[in-house]
Amino acid sequence: MGASQKNLVLIEETKLRQMMEELIKNENGADIGLKIRPKIVALLKNTISEGQKQAELILQQNGKGRQCARRLSLLVDTVITTLYNFVVERIYPLPNPSSGERIALIAVGGYGRGTLAPHSDIDLHFLLPWKQTPWGEQVMEYILYMLWDVGLKVGHATRNIEDSIRMAQEDMTVRTALLEARFLIGNRGIFDELMRRFEDEVVKGTSPAFIRAKLLERDQRHKKAGETRYLVEPNVKESKGGQRDLQTLLWIAKYHYRITSTDKLVTLGVLSKAELRIFKKADDFLWAVRCHMHFLTGKAQERLSFDIQRDIAHRLGYTAHPGMEDVERFMKHYFLVAKQVGDLTRIVSAALEEEYAKPVPGLNRVFLTFSRRKKKIVDYPGFVIDTKRINIDDDDVFVRDPVNLIRLFYLSDTHGLECHPHAVQEASRSLKLITPKVREDKEANRLFIAILTSPRNPSLILRRMNESGVLGKFIPDFGKIVAMMQFNMYHHYTVDEHLLRCIACLSQIDHGEVYQDHPLASSIVPTFKKERTILFVALFLHDIAKGRPEDHSIAGAKIARKLCPRFGLSRADTELVAWLIKEHLTMSMVAQSRDLNDRKTIEDFANVVQTTDRLKLLLVLTICDIKGVGPGVWNGWKGQLLRTLYHETELVLTGGFSQVPRTDRINASKERLHDALENWDEAEKQHYIGLQYPNYWLTVSPEDQVRQANFIRDADKRKTPLATMSELHRFDGVTELTILAPDHPRVLSIVTGACAAAGGNIVDAQIFTTTDGRALDIILISREFELDDDETRRANRVGKMIEDALKGTIRLPEVIAQRAKPRRAAKAFDVAPNVEINNTLSDKFSVIEIEGLDRPGLLFEITKTLSDLSLDIASAHITTFGEKVIDNFYVNDLFRHKIINPQKQAAIRRKLLALIAAEPKENMKRT
């Protein structure tokens, strides 16, 4: 603590003490402590409140996070020390204390470091020389209850010196707390005795055990918080690259090197002066973010969630740039800082390893028992295998030949070994050697393509290159998207992390590891020869133009045309990579938002793809792109849609689609069903076949036709006008609900509302009518339960809700309001509403595409509005991208015609836009 800060504390303590004396001067009697307590609590509350307001104001003015944290710690110091003095002098005075009636009040943990966030826990240690005394118990109890009443979250321990030493020897958490112990007030002598014994009896000679424990603790914390530091809603305190990682480094440095200041790490040669500046800037930035989070939310908010990210960005002064929002610029800075924390971890790792000459890769394993052995790598001078890792033989390896910066990671891949921390550290310090000449070097690019297309684990090596900074320096366009966040609820990771995860997905398919999940892609990839390189390159580059004003697919294709010749690809292969990048979203959008039973959909997509080779490459790229977005984004239903689109398009491209006329296909479908209904008499068969219109025979699979025929016959026998049936599709990750009801325009609206009320998330809907005036609707909802029995019970509940809604025994808006849960954090986003009416996507229907911000009950409201507009919905295709919805409805007017009239189209747009832009109804949920 600086002299000026100490003086500030003394001034505040004196002022606060005077105010407390004013409150007590007219009080007397035996229960004075009880009488004065409410007044003291109010005074301390006000002191803390005013102090925090001042700290927040100064933080907003100067942006210095660590200074704010120290100011808040000093504020708490003032409250606690003043309260302690007041209690021992005025409430429980002890004129002649014995040697046993001594207390040292110690700050431990984060508070012991002298830094606090506004709503952090306060960790106190009441240190006694021997055992507890009645006087000491009264003092501690009074202080603690006062602090709790004030609203501070105080954790405490009461121990004597002997117990403190014993517990520190046995418990690493207690040891870490005492490592940061800071004397507050009381008897200084017993505190000094504790610290002396702690050094001699606990710390001395135990560095390896402490480091091992701290890093195991860190690994477990990372696993719990999320293995990557690039989660788009990071925990500033606990996530990888957050404050706790910096604190872990401080603990290790303080324990091992016995230092009290990070500046000493420069003196010891662990960090350079530049790296120390990075350390301090990272620490200051993380403190600024965390303090702002606490001030903004009024609580100990540690997760940087979507709903506060924009506010924090504004508090820190970030503004929007072309192609990037203010919040995205802030989050990119955050992730770059998190990456720097990882770099510092690696540097300390290298320093420890040099000192002990034993491996500590990534600080995950500490001080193994075998000694260092070095073995030169044949044909690669300057590189050695050092304790089972690739290392450099001397620090001039990269200066002599900068291509060695790529060769380091190539050797890591080909030998299946990690890179030594020292080699990675020197690579990071040598990034300036990667000049335009090195980027154009044929050998450097050959090595890079060998890494990217490695049959082993390319994503692992690329991630190591990225962590070191080499990847972004070698490919500057990639460097621009490092740590770049996309501010939406759909993408779980930063852009660079997404690309590396996509490569990992492709590698899994390449190895045949996910055949059960991706049978088609897994059968296609082994047939690739030169296409394999094209696919890896296209996948690596497909999002490389994110964050630019121009559409990233178009801009990405331009970048590919620049980079691919450098990578050694031919002109034809370069154009194929550029085409894949330009169209990398097309297959996913068509599969999820178009009617795949509509011939025009398939023909239009085939015109885009043009060749089966392109179709195969685009399918695999699309699968990897979706899977790389984040957990839970891919599901079996998306896989089924992509396979259906692939097979139907393949037929068109190979000339098989149009070989059989429409009438012949309808008749063939009828004959198959006729033959499959073995237990039906002829009259029943003919009657049922006459119930279905031509579109039914062209769009429903033979297996489903049989199931639905038996379902309708059973309902007719029971004379039930309203019936539901469920079917589980485990592989597709969906549950099918079939609804039979008297036909009327609002059937789909009621069904979607009932699904919303029952918690069913609709992903697709097919609507058919029968010639006798009934509706046969097939609804697909996302599967919720792993066990079939649980999912069946849930499907039955949804079916019962649908039946009740169609019977009119429940009022859907009220039920939805009661049962639906609002989507988390959606209010933080702004999606411009848009409605398009397209008459070129289908020969029979108008396609209405609705785009907007998701909200509770939206699909119910949309289908109700379409019914109010006298539109007949033939199929609905529901797509949700985080907070954004893109819903497509294939519709006719009441005369089964397309919506051609401009005035009618304008009226539809006005109504739907007004609906989407309207404020959400409280406590409703979209299906």
Topology:
Blueprint: H1 3-24, H2 32-62, H3 65-91, E1 104-107, H4 109-112, E2 122-128, H5 134-150, E3 154-160, H6 161-170, H7 172-179, E4 182-186, H8 188-203, H9 207-225, H10 243-257, H11 264-267, H12 273-297, H13 306-315, H14 326-356, E5 374-376, E6 383-386, E7 389-392, H15 397-400, H16 404-415, E8 418-419, H17 421-428, H18 436-440, H19 442-452, H20 458-468, H21 470-474, H22 476-481, H23 495-510, H24 519-524, H25 530-541, H26 552-567, H27 571-582, H28 586-593, H29 599-609, H30 612-627, H31 636-653, H32 662-676, H33 682-689, H34 694-699, H35 702-717, E9 723-729, E10 734-742, H36 747-758, E11 762-769, E12 774-782, H37 788-807, H38 812-819, E13 834-838, E14 846-853, H39 858-868, E15 872-881, E16 884-892, H40 902-917
Parallel strand pairs: 2-3, 7-8
Antiparallel strand pairs: 1-2, 1-4, 5-6, 6-7, 9-10, 10-12, 11-12, 11-15, 13-14, 14-16, 15-16
Family: Belongs to the GlnD family.
EC number: 2.7.7.59, 3.1.4.-
GO biological process, one term: regulation of nitrogen utilization
Overview of this protein structure:
- Its cofactor is Mg(2+).
- This protein is α+β, with helices and mostly antiparallel strands and 927 residues long.
- The chain has 6 domains: 6-204, 2-Layer Sandwich (Beta Polymerase, domain 2); 209-356, Four Helix Bundle (Hemerythrin (Met), subunit A), CATH 1.20.120; 374-455, no CATH class; 475-654, no CATH class; 659-716; 717-917, Alpha-Beta Plaits (2-Layer Sandwich), CATH 3.30.70.
- Helix content is 57%, strand content 11%.
- The chain starts with a helix and ends in a 10-residue tail after the last helix.
